[in-house]
TrEMBL record:
Domain Quercetin 2,3-dioxygenase C-terminal cupin: 162-237
Protein known as: Quercetin 2,3-dioxygenase C-terminal cupin domain-containing protein
Species of the source: Acetobacter suratthaniensis
InterPro entries assigned: Quercetinase_C, RmlC-like_jellyroll, RmlC_Cupin_sf
Domain of life: Bacteria
């Protein structure tokens, strides 16, 4: 099942509007992907999630510009285009902040953890060259087999080092596709796929997604996306019912 999603704008203070992608309440089961937001930050502006802070893995991908991430007790991190920042939060902890050092756009995903055993961490993944075949590249993962250090065979498909580590069986992937090219992804049962068209225009099974459109795909184990124009895509693969929600 494919559910098309369009961002809804919410004001956060007098000068900052944040676009949230509402995840449908009629989804077959509770999705570990809790929040998706696109934030346009003017230079000098700061973005933060309103309290209370919940137990999440927060992934922030920088689409354009440069941003400073501050998440106590960790040191600040300066991020630029196509960099990924991951921070694990604890219930009732300090709210992380992201301050634009120039006009910037970031896309943020909040993923519920499945285990409380791992302590929250902060990590950063710099930008790397796009894959030659234009396929999906794993940026963050909670699967040990996606780490080249843990699985030597993974270096066949992950050529730029390990993805950032998540506290759930989830993945964040990226694809940059020329016009007319496609990207395929295979998952397992009881998963939800969230596809966001960051730039360009793309098709899924005859359904066209415009720039900044998104789709929630459930009940499918195979996904093929065709770029109608040169496109940039982000894909999140999460369990429908993470153990932390049982």
């Amino acid at each position: 099942m494919i559910t098309l999603l369009q961002a809804a704008e919410r004001l956060q203070g007098p000068a900052l509007a944040v676009q949230h992608y509402p995840l449908p309440g009629e989804a077959p089961a509770t999705n570990a992907l809790a929040t998706v937001a696109r934030v346009n930050l003017p230079a000098g502006q700061t973005f933060t999630q309103p309290p209370p802070v919940l137990d999440r893995d927060i992934l922030t991908w920088i689409h354009r510009g440069a941003v400073r991430a501050c998440a106590a007790p960790f040191p600040p991190e300066d991020l630029t285009e196509n960099w990924l920042h991951a921070i694990g939060t604890e219930p009732n902890g300090a709210s992380p902040t992201w301050q634009a050092m120039c006009d910037s756009t970031l896309i943020q995903f909040h993923i519920l953890p499945e285990t409380q055993e791992a302590a929250p961490e902060q990590s950063v993944r710099p930008a790397f060259a796009a894959l030659e075949d234009g396929g999906f590249r794993i940026l963050a993962s909670g699967f040990a087999e996606d780490d080249p250090e843990d699985n030597p065979e993974a270096t066949l498909t992950i050529t730029d080092g390990a993805p950032l580590t998540l506290r759930s069986r989830s993945r964040l992937l990226h694809a940059a596709l020329p016009q007319g090219e496609g990207a395929a992804y295979q998952t397992t049962p009881e998963r939800a796929l969230f596809l966001l068209v960051v730039e360009g225009q793309a098709r899924i099974d005859g359904t066209t997604l415009q720039p900044q459109d998104a789709a929630l795909i459930t009940g499918e184990e195979n996904l093929t996306v065709i770029a109608s124009t040169q496109s940039v895509l982000l894909l999140v693969d999460t369990p429908l019912t993470p153990e932390s929600l049982l």
